Amino acid sequence: MTRPIRRRSILAATALAVATTVALTGCATSSSSASSDGGTTTMKLVLGWYADPESGGFYAGQTEGLYEKAGIDLSIQQGGPTVSGTQIVAGGRADIGMGDAAAVAEAQQQGIPIVAIGAMYQTNPVGVMVHADSGMDSFDDMAGHTWVVQTGNVGVEYMQQEKGLDFDTQAYQGSIANFIKDDSLVQQGWPTNEVYQAQEQGVDTTFFSYASAGFNPYNDVIFTTKKYLQEHPDEVKAFLDASMNGWKQYMGDIDVAERANAQLEKVNSQQTSESVWFAWDKQREYVVDGDGAEQLGTMTTERWTTLVDQLVELGVLDERIPAKDLFDASYLPDVAAPTDLPAAPEGSY
After folding, report:
1. What's the domain count of the chain?
2. d(C-alpha 32, C-alpha 219), whole Å
3. Does one domain contain both 260 and 304?
4. For labelling alongside 165, which of 74, 102, 136, 336 has CA 20 to 30 A away?
5. What's the burial of 138, exposed, middle or buried (CB within 10 Å: 0-12/13-18/19+)?
6. What is the pLDDT of residue 15?
7. What parts of the chain have a pLDDT lower than 70?
8. In 156-195, which positions are buried (b, 16+ CB within 10 angstroms) versus exposed (e)?
């Protein structure tokens, strides 16, 4: 199951519907948000993609009872290629959504009042892979090759416009079959998905993130509407506290990871135990990198300002949006990354 790099086309297609929904509802408080049973708050989270280890910390929060202890009855809705979390949250059908930082900025440009409240991937894992024996040891070596990428991939636009790389593109439609057969191709992907697929088929790869070339927007950004944040600050704090502790335990405690991964396999049966453990292992460095070592989910004005500048230069945004309008990290708890990242269980992948 391949996760797309960016879903700009879906955002554009739903922009009018979202704007209409926002206008009609005024970004009303979600109907899923209600207190009952002695103060328990019902909340709904819509993921940016199907349930997999990239959302594993939230499932760990459920399996370990962290949300329950925080007084939250959390339901999790899977995302997917046709699911717009922006639209769902803006329309009040979920309280919290997941996406990438560029999507938050684009949504605000379109008049959709969402705000980022946390970011799991401190270093964006999105990038490209090549055959390990292809002789391509840097992005510069990929010039003149054909890149298999999705239309509207901002990272690709950055490599062409800002880095000046000249290359042809081939539409990526979810399969790496052409890449497996042709060692001259450059294949977009995630180090948790496409790299594993290639490994399964006996192809060793070298992976390059766009972040290493200077395009490093936060990814797996947690967002809500500005109205919900204003009206439910305590619920948001409780949700983030349980979530960040869930992530810390998921990454640093094998027993917790086993329970959460078993739940992920139940929720999304398209995965295998091997692919789940591979993704669990490989994603963690992107979560705990940089500022994430001291505070999981943290965000800075500098990073958001840099992204806005890059998106304006690339023509994705028409004008600069102040960073303070895009994110609010003040609701995050002071939860540091685990000091030790244990190896995956022997034989798990």
Report:
1. 2
2. 26
3. yes
4. 102
5. exposed
6. 43
7. 1-38
8. bbbbeeeeebebebeebeeebeebbeeeebbbbbbbbbbb
- The C-alpha angle 97, 99, 102, rounded to 5 degrees, equals 135
- Do 177 and 302 belong together in one domain? no
Say whether both 148 and 68 belong to one domain: no
Whole-number Å distance between alpha carbons of 225 and 86 = 9
* Spatial CB neighbours of 147, under 8 Å, sequence gap ≥ 6: 128, 156, 167, 168, 169, 170, 185, 186, 187, 188
Q: What are the angstrom distances between the C-alpha of 17 and each of 11, 153, 249, 274?
A: 10, 23, 39, 39
Query: Cβ–Cβ contacts within 10 Å for residue 85, how many?
Result: 24
Residue partners of 72: CB distance under 8 A and separation at least 6: 40, 41, 42, 43, 235, 238, 239, 242
Task: Tell the residue number behind the tokens 């699911």, with chain if given.
Answer: 83
Regarding whether 108 and 253 lie in a shared domain, the answer is yes
Cα dihedral sign, 160-165-169-173: negative
pLDDT at position 155 is 96
CATH number, residue 251 = 3.40.190.10
What pLDDT is stored for residue 341 in this prediction?
Answer: 97
Query: Are the CB atoms for 235 and 224 separated by under 8 Å?
Result: no
Give the C-alpha separation, 129 to 2, whole Å.
14
**Residue 295: count of CB within 10 angstroms of its CB:** 18
Q: Which helix (H) or strand (E) holds 194?
A: helix 194-200
Nearest-angstrom CA–CA distance, 181 and 92: 46
R_g of the chain, CA atoms, integer Å: 20
Q: What is the pLDDT of residue 5?
A: 56
